[in-house]
Request: fold
Amino acid sequence: MPYDITMRHQQALEPSALTTIGATLHAIQAAITDCRNAGKDFESDPAVVLLARRFATVCEAEPADLELRRACLDAIAEIRRHPALKTLAYRGVAYDEAAKRVFHSEGRAAMRRLAEALSLAEGTYDVRSDKGGPAVSGDITLHGEEVWVRLSLGPLGPDHEIAYRKVKGRGDHIGDRNRWASVRDLLAPDRFAARLQRELGLTIPAAEPSRLFA
Reply:
């Protein structure tokens, strides 16, 4: 049965104690919970709206939008220079769903970059992700017509996060013997692609002829 309380309304009318983003966010989340308990729409609840507007006051001393946007762009560039994939591979992602989600997202992206470095055409390879249970990392696999590459945190430890082998088509799930590489190799796709081509004897796609324009 729905029930309502006055707390959110009182806090909205006297928000002076809400001086940080964290405190304001907590108050809004609590107010939304109260609305749900009362069976009310929090999107139009006056207390929730007033509390949300409190953010403007809390943030008014912060830098201007342009400066904040520039800081976000700098942060993105810094993160891309230091991918989380290597860190997560070393620390592990077992029993950490958020970390595993990032591990698989970055792992799939890394496999796609490797496919590009190998000049694999769209439709000639698959990138698969299997998260497995909470106690394991799961695996991310690139499976092409000639090459199979898997990223997984297994019992062999550091520098054995990548298994790779030559296969005969995407239906071949056995292939030749496994070879091993480090997650660091995956993060250098051009160099790793050259290694795969050399060690596995992969077909190197012919370079497209350059076009001459008048």
Notes: The helical segments are 7-13, 21-38, 46-59, 65-81, 84-91, 97-117, 183-186, 189-200.
